[in-house]
């Protein structure tokens, strides 16, 4: 497997890997494109188009992305229809981020697919695991979703929560680390 396949598979990526330059080039490209994106005038269609180029996907016309927006990678994001992504969000997507239809992403939400090993000798290296936000989920302001987490259908993540484990469908979670607060009744 090449370094990108190994990264998507969750393997530890070391800075001294002979192919690390591929990772660094993509990071540099994403930072450049992110700066360009965040300088755009307010024009929903133009923002969707340029964000789509950065993220390597088509963003449906029913989806709104507010600026500023930040990513360290781009290319490993999938966004459904009728999604709302508020301002100031950060998507660290080396592990992949999937956002299904009708999801709401509050301001300053962090979707972080990357992490570092606990071992101090390896701590500068990175591994990644995907994040999946299911249909109708609502991620509250300044919440952080950590690597490998799935937020269930119609679930709510309270503002400021740090989500370290999967969130079941139709539940509300909050706190640090996030815990189930209640079940949503329809």
Quick synopsis:
The chain has 186 residues and is of the alpha/beta class.
Task: Tell me what you see in this structure.
The protein is α/β, with parallel strands linked by helices. Helix content is 20%, strand content 26%. The protein has three helices and 18 strands. The protein has a seven-stranded mixed β-sheet with strand order 1-4-7-12-15-17-18. It has a five-stranded parallel β-sheet with strand order 2-5-8-13-16. β17 (171-174) and β18 form a beta hairpin. α2 packs antiparallel against α3 (44-55). It is globular and about 55 Å long. The chain starts with a helix and ends with a strand. The model has no long low-confidence stretch (mean pLDDT 96).
Question: Secondary-structure blueprint of this entry?
Answer:
Blueprint: H1 3-8, H2 20-38, H3 44-55, E1 64-65, E2 69-71, E3 77-79, E4 84-85, E5 89-92, E6 97-99, E7 104-105, E8 110-112, E9 114-115, E10 127-128, E11 131-133, E12 138-139, E13 144-145, E14 150-151, E15 156-157, E16 162-163, E17 171-174, E18 179-183
